[in-house]
Amino acid sequence: MIIKTRKDIASSEITPESVYRERRKFLKSSANVALGAAGAGLLSPAGIAQTGDSLFARAPADINLASKPDWLLEKVAQSVPAPESGPYFTDETKTPFDDVTTYNNFYEFGTGKGDPANNARDFRIDPWSVEVAGECGKPGTYTLEDILKPHAFEERIYRLRCVEAWSMVIPWIGFSLADLLQRFDPNGNANFVMFQTLVDGDQMPAQRSRFASIDWPYQEGLRMDEAMNPLAMMATGVYNDVLPAQNGAPLRLVVPWKYGFKSLKSIVRIEFTRRMPNNTWNDLQPSEYGFYANVNPEVSHPRWTQASERRLPSSLFKPQRIPTRMFNGYEEEVASLYAGMDLRRNY
Amino acid sequence: MNNLAKPVIFLLCLWPGAYLIYAVYLVFTGGENLLGPDPAQFLSLQTGEWAIRLLILSLAITPLRYLLNWPYVFRLRRMIGLFAYFYVCMHLLVFLWFMLGWQWGNIGVEIAERPFITIGFSAFVLLTPLAATSFNTAQRKLGRNWKKLHRLTYAVSFLAVMHVIWIVRSSYFDAVLYGGLVFVLLGYRLLRKYSNGVKGFTLIR
User: Fold this and answer.
1) Spatial CB neighbours of A346, under 8 Å, sequence gap ≥ 6
2) Which chain A residues have a beta carbon less than 8 Å from that of B98?
3) Disulfide check for A325: which of A32, A320, A329, B78 has CB 3.0–4.6 Å away?
4) Which residue of B has its CA nearest to A305?
5) Is residue B205 in a domain?
């Protein structure tokens, strides 16, 4: 039997982290000074915090956290690099750190793609606790350290497909969701598991907005067998560092075969339920977003096609428009979960 | 002040478009990317926002003239309207070039799958004859019909707001802002039309 040893070069070691971040910061700030400063106020009467899509709204790529707990940094540093084959790996080009951390949806911080990076400055993850409730043997309030300590972290490179028809390839750090859920002893009545994101208007400005139609907290759910599938992941880091606030620190779900909105961020509550829990986007627009939200090129969103996607970063003159794959390319691992189901009805 | 207003507003209207064209030029020549990881989306959003903002501003000229008693603003209306059309054209160009990649075969699918594109395109079609008849000679030749023709702006602004509402995912900020402004500006005209001689409406004549 041949045992392959892993190479010790991790994803981001090729260019030292500090170097590429500083360079980006410098370029951004100099561009903003040269072109933006004079016009910024006039150019965005609609308000940056609301739309976030002002010409100059992109924050420099940064881990926006008030502090990074030492024990967490240590655990992230000790994580096992991604394997070189199998479902936890893809050789597709990774979306750069800068884009992963400055261009995403996190509606608690605003609806613009740059809002999370802009408005999540100094987000506090220390102290943090997660409430576990419902159909399980060990309900209670657990500190972040309680939640994370027993798990060895590993890197997994996953595709992420947003329901808005763009996608990225991201090296997450974390562990199997199943390993976490099993610790709470779910009982025979636990058919589903529900998750909720933090509600904190002081730190999350869009939760104070009158124009958001979302009824906070943001909530998502999985069927128990989906949650126990080894692909489902609890992420605590990205690109060999702790998760930035804008990407869902300190704890977020990553369910790579489903549209991105299922992978909710900054989790504070886990509840095992007998019945199918509500989920935020389904509550908002039931005809457009279902409970399952599996990536499926054959089932269009009512307002746009899901047959293809823009892989980011895309280029202006050569857009990276690629066909979308069934279950986002994880068909082999998850198709059996939906055997016999009509995926057109259960979208 | 009047002498300065026109060039200053000209530059302000030009600024975002010039910046975007410069950013596209930078990408074309292999320079820094100021447009982010999803450049087509960013350009589309920016050109669209500026188109509707300037369209609304052009609708605000008449009320401003009376409310501020500043007849000079009438002289800015054509320029602002043409700038709105300029951004509409850029918006369409971004869609055809950077999003559709000139693949005309896909346009049928796009229109069927995304009705807001049809609405947006209708607005462009309605706006085109207005831009084409904006110069003095056309204005003189069309006489009374010129004014009638240019009332198409009301329909265009309605379509533009529908276009915005249709792409909302969860925040109604833009839809409420632009929809509200158009509602007020068109409402003002209705009031003006039907309030002749009614006391209390002297302000808006």
Assistant:
1) A290, A291, A292, A338
2) 316-317, 319
3) A329
4) B113
5) no
Range of the domain at B27: 2-199
Task: Tell me the nearest-neighbour CA distance from A112 into chain B, angstroms.
Answer: 10
The number of distinct structural domains making up chain B is 1
pTM: 0.83
A201 phi/psi in degrees, rounded to 5: -60, -30
Within-domain flag for B39: yes
Q: Which residues pair with A89 in a beta bridge?
A: none
Q: Is residue B26 part of a domain?
A: yes
Q: Which of A45, A55, A103 sits opposite B38 (nearest CB)?
A: A103
Residues from A contacting B (CB-CB < 8 Å) are 27, 31, 35, 39, 42-43, 45-47, 50-51, 53, 55, 58, 95, 99, 102-103, 107, 111, 113-114, 164, 166, 206, 209, 211-214, 284, 300, 303-305, 310, 312-317, 319, 321
The yes or no reply on domain A17-338 and CATH 3.30.365.10 is no
pLDDT in tens, A185-232: 999 999 999 999 999 999 999 999 888 789 999 999 999 999 999 999
- ipTM greater than cut 0.90: no
Amino acid (1-letter code) at residue A11: S
Q: Is B34 helix (H, G, I), strand (E, B) or coil?
A: coil
Tell me the nearest-neighbour CA distance from A34 into chain B, angstroms: 11
List pLDDT tens digits, range B105-145: 777 777 777 788 889 999 999 999 999 999 999 989 998 99
Q: How far is CA A298 from the centre of its chain?
A: 24
Q: Where are the domains of chain A?
A: 17-338
B→A interface, C-beta within 8 Å: 12, 15-16, 19-20, 24, 27-28, 32-43, 45-46, 49, 53, 98-99, 101, 109, 113-116, 166-167, 169-174, 176-177
Interchain CB distance below 8 Å, B53 and A314 = no
Question: At A196, is the secondary structure helix, strand, or coil?
Answer: strand
Work out the mean pLDDT of chain A and round it to a whole number. 87
Predicted pLDDT of residue A195? 98
Q: Is residue B204 part of a domain?
A: no
Among candidate residues A273, A279, A275, the one with its CA nearest the CA of residue A255: A279
State how far residue B47 is from chain A, nearest Cα, in angstroms. 11
Question: Which residues, 6+ apart, have CB-to-CB distance to B190 below 8 Å?
Answer: none
